[in-house]
Design a protein that fits this description.
This protein is about 20% helix and about 10% strand. The protein is α+β, with helices and mostly antiparallel strands. It binds zinc ion.
Length: about 80
Amino acid sequence: MRHPYVKRRVGAWEWCLTCEKASRASDWQRADWDCPLCGSGTWNMWAWSTVRAVNPAYPAKPEPGVLYPLYPVRAASEGQASRV
Ligand SMILES: [Zn+2]
């Protein structure tokens, strides 16, 4: 049975929801599609383009090993409006 993520471009950048770091799809592939950095499962693999859509300031090519939080402005916006 083929893994659903096998069709990913091996040169593409992927992002891990668990460790919030980016790595190459080829590295995920070598780790049997687990996160090559923290071992988190495939379901936590997000396309880098998805993370960038939320954070336009992030670079097109992420730096390996750098922490890229999904919501870096959350702390700043918490004081503005409470949705609870
Ligand atoms: Zn990870």
